[in-house]
Every structure is written in structure tokens, then in C-alpha cells.
Amino acid sequence: MCVASVVFDRSIKAYSLISILHISDLHRSPSEPVNNDSLIAALVADGDRYLGEAPRVPPPCGIVVSGDIIQGARIGEEGWREEMVSQYVTAKDFLCKLSDRFLGGDRSQLILIPGNHDVCWNTSRSSMEKANPNETDGKIVSLIEQRGSRYRWSWKEQVAYKIADSTLYHRKLDAYWDFISDFYSGFTFPLPIDRSRGFQLFELDQSRILVSAFDSTYGNDCFGYSGDIEPGVVGRCSLAIRDLPKAYELKAAVWHHSIEGPPMRQDYMDVSHVKEMAGLGFQIGFHGHQHIGATQTRSIHLNEEHAMAVVSAGSLCAGARELPRGINRQYNIVVIEDDYKSGRVHAREMGEGGQFSRKTNGEFLMGHARISWLAQENIAGQIVKPDEENARRTILRAEEFLKSGMAKKALEEILTIDAGANSYAKRLACEAAVEAREWEVLKQLLSEAVSEDEVVWLAIALIESRDLVQAADLIAKHSELSKPVVQQLNDRLAVAQMKAGK
User: Fold this and answer.
1) Taking the CB of residue 105, how many other CB atoms lie within 10 A of it?
2) What is the distance between the alpha carbons of residues 329 and 33, in angstroms, rounded to a whole number?
3) Cα(208)–Cα(310) distance, rounded to whole angstroms?
4) DSSP single-letter state for residue 454
5) Closest of 27, 106, 25 to residue 63, by C-alpha
6) What is the rounded CA–CA span in Å between residue 341 and residue 217?
7) What is the 3-state secondary structure (H, E, C) of 407-439?
8) Over the chain, what is the mean pLDDT?
9) Cβ neighbours of residue 144 under 8 Å, at least 6 residues apart?
10) Could you say which of 169, 273, 282, 454 would form a disulfide bridge with 449 (CB–CB 3.0 to 4.6 Å)?
């Protein structure tokens, strides 16, 4: 971008109500297949319905898909590799059509994470061998309960297994990541997609909302069903967010597994992960897995309470055998209020004719459920104002560029904010423009010169850009300038006039 072509936008940023389409568990039941076109048509038709409902539900600005993209293949199933690839082809067709209909084809606004169904059981099983009884006798329970353990227990066979090939084991999501690489090809993100990082970052609502997508399938395989996030991933994600060049109005997280379950079930994720997210400033979380739409608030107490709203979506495509009794296929529309501090969850449930309408029982008795969270705070306990924080970070980067002799780069940086609203930013921009000899930009900056320095800079810009008459008028008009300054400006003007006369 040419620096001289930049024009300031001094308009006040206007926020408006936004919504996020939250779907989950797209795995198709073999006995009850779902046709992509019929499902898209039902979602589009329901969009017509909820856009006219009260309270207002705006069109979605983004889509969150909280895991289980495919059904997967059973252990030993013939042609299991081809079967998984085929299922991802069907999923891609659906998600592309969904993106085209709701997001204008911008797949960077559609957030995907893996679920337990995306884990290849055949790959994980091939990496294991039966454990030596001498290793496990009398201590198998403690071995399989250790985080990151190589040991598993097969209830069907009543036999202990051990991961013998760690490299092969870690390829259990290869089919998912191949699909992800294809789906997001050509789109950009705050950080490049990285299959080994444990999290991905997305921006929604014109980059005002940051969404961290966490892989909760750590330790998931053909024998291990509980959800988990690899140790350190949430912390590394928080540090990566700190290093981004901007702040956000809202920080959201997505994972797959539910965070609580009945005593005899062990396929949910330890809630400690969510408490860590809340403590690190995440304000709203999305998940699936439990096949029921619901909301809850998770709070932790440090020096003050930190609260995080958690929203689960029902399954969009599961069959009757996979759905809880009395529950149909569902999805959510999550509305974020203008202040980015609260919202509403509208659960939509499939009924007759394969069509969706509002869910009106349980916590959604009124057609929606309210959610809220706490505003972001800095280390001093002050409310973080993203606009001010972004301006501060920009000024710091511009200062570093200017100190390093990169005046043009400093000017490009400072022009990304409204320098006219900050006296120091304006001064920094003027100094950078003078060093970069960007006279047209300097004249734009000083359309209202108020200080002696600004008058001098404007006079220099007028002289250097050959607006000599205006320069002479400006110097004559400002009698408050000291005599040495006026003399220097007049000398510079005289030289320019002589050159112009040749």
C-alpha cells in the first residue's frame, strides 16, 4: 500500500448485534443418512423463520462446528481408509454449501475442530500391542489413569494394551487434518493452521472476536474415550494471543467434549481445562458431544471472580439411536449483544418434515436462554478497552520502527489508527512523515495545525510539495513563530522559489 494514498477515517466505529451459528456432531448414522441438500434447505428455511422472531436474531457472521465431522470407521472394517475419505468428501460438500449460503463463501469464518468420531480407531489400534502381564498385573488401573499413559484397557477382551508405535499413534487424525488442509486452502488466519499445535485461531465479526479452537481428543482412541487437551496447550494459546498485534472485544474458545457427565460415563472432559480458560480471560466457550443444547456458567475465584459462559449444541446429524431419549437433531444460534458482555442462545430443534423451529422447553422455555460473562481485565484489574489497547500497541510498534530508521514502515503502522484522536500518535506520525518525506500525508495530518511544531512541519510539507504560495501565506499568517524559525522557513521557501523559476 502506498503511504501517500492513505486517507484517515475519523468516523466513530458503530457496533451492532451479531450472531454465530453453532452446530456440532455432524456424524451421519448409517441407518439414518442425511442428505446434504435437504439439510442445507432446512437450515436456510429456518433462517427465514428466526430472522423474523422476537427478540431479534441477526444473520450469522460466523459458524462454529464443535467437532465430530464424520462417523468414522469400525476396527477391521474393510476399506476403512477409503470409507473415512468418502465421509470427509460428504462433510466438505455440506460445509462448503453452508459457507456459501451463510458466509458468502468465506471459509475463514467457519471454525472446525476434531471430535472423538474423527479419531481413526484403526490407526490407533494398529499402533498398539497387548501389554506384558508383568508390566500391568495389580496396577493396570493406576497405569491407565495416568495422563498421557501408553496403556489402555479393552473391556471387551478384558486385556491391557500398550501403545508400541507412538509415531503411528499420533497419526490417528491424519484423515481429519488432510480434510482441514484442503478445506482451508487459500484462506488466511491470525496464525497458520498447524496440526501439531493443539489449537487454531480464528477471527469473527470483522476481527472483533477471537476464537481459539482446541483439540480435546488428546488420549482419545479405540480404547480411551475421555476428552482431554494436551498439557500446556491452553497456556501456550493464551501466550500466543498476547503476542498478536491487536486486542479483541471478545475471546471465545471451542472444544468438542462435554465437561460433565453421569457417574458411569467416562467420555467427558475434565472441567479444569475450562477453569484455566476462564482464568486466562476466555469469556464464552462452545462444545458438542453430549447431543443436547444447553448453557451454563463456569466461575473461578482468584482475587475476583472470573466467569465464562459455556454453550453446548445438540447433534445436527446423529440418528435416533445416538440421541438422548426425547431429543431430536438440534443446533444453536448464539446472539452476542452490542456490549460484548452478554448474549442469548436460541436452540433450534428438528421436527416434522425434517424442518427446524425454536426449542421451547427446559431452559429454552422462552425460546432462548440468557448468557453473560465478565469483561476482560488487565493485570491492574482495569477493564480492557480493545480500541485503546490496539492504539497503544500500534504506537509502540511505530516507535520501534522509527528508532530503527524505518520511517516509512512506522508511518504505515501509525496510519492504521486514528492519529488525530491521540496527540502523541499524531506527533509520531508527523515525525515519521518528515523522515520518510511523505509530504502529502503530512499535509493531511496537519489539515488543522495547532502547535508551533505543526505549523513548521506543514510549512515544510507545502514547500517540498511545491505549494509555494500557500507556504508563504502560512508563514506570514503565524506571527507567533520565533524570528529564527521564520527566517529558516523563509530561506527554505526562497530556495524553492528559485528552483521553481528555472
Assistant:
1) 12
2) 13
3) 19
4) H
5) 106
6) 30
7) HHHHHHHHCCCCHHHCHHHHHHHHHHHHHHCCH
8) 89
9) 151, 152, 153, 160, 224
10) 454
Report pLDDT digits (tens) over 313-368. Answer: 999 999 888 898 889 999 999 999 988 989 999 999 999 999 999 999 989 988 89
CATH 3.60.21.10 domain span(s) along the chain: 13-127+165-372
Rounded to 5 degrees, φ, ψ at 77 are -65, 135
Listed in order, the ranges of the chain carrying CATH 1.25.40.10 are 386-501
Q: What is the CATH number of domain 13-127+165-372?
A: 3.60.21.10
Q: Minimal CA–CA distance to 40: which of 364, 415, 355? A: 355
Task: State how beta strands 199-204 and 369-372 pair.
Answer: unpaired
Does the predicted TM-score (pTM) go above 0.90? no
Backbone region of residue 248 per phi and psi (left: phi > 0; alpha: psi in -120 to 50; beta: other values): beta
Contact between residue 161 and residue 223 where contact means Cβ atoms under 8 Å apart: yes
Q: How far apart are CA 127 and CA 145, in angstroms?
A: 19
The backbone torsions φ and ψ at residue 297, rounded to the nearest 5 degrees and listed phi first, read -120, 130
> Phi and psi at residue 189, in whole multiples of 5°?
-140, 165
Q: Give the whole-number percent of the chain exceeding pLDDT 70.
A: 93
First-to-last alpha carbon distance for the chain, in angstroms, is 34
What does the block give as the cell for 44? Answer: 436456510
Q: State the Cα–Cα distance between residues 347 and 370, nearest whole angstrom.
A: 12
* Rounded Cα–Cα distance for residues 433 and 320 (Å): 66
Distance (Å, whole) CA 89 – CA 371: 36
Q: Report how far apart, in Å, the C-alpha atoms of 453 and of each of 330, 439, 460, 478, 494 are.
A: 64, 15, 11, 12, 20
CB 331 within 8 A of CB 314: yes
What is the distance of C-alpha 100 from the center of its chain? 19
3-state secondary structure of 235: helix
For the chain, what percent of residues have pLDDT higher than 90? 67
Per the CB < 8 A criterion, the answer to whether 276 and 237 are in contact is no
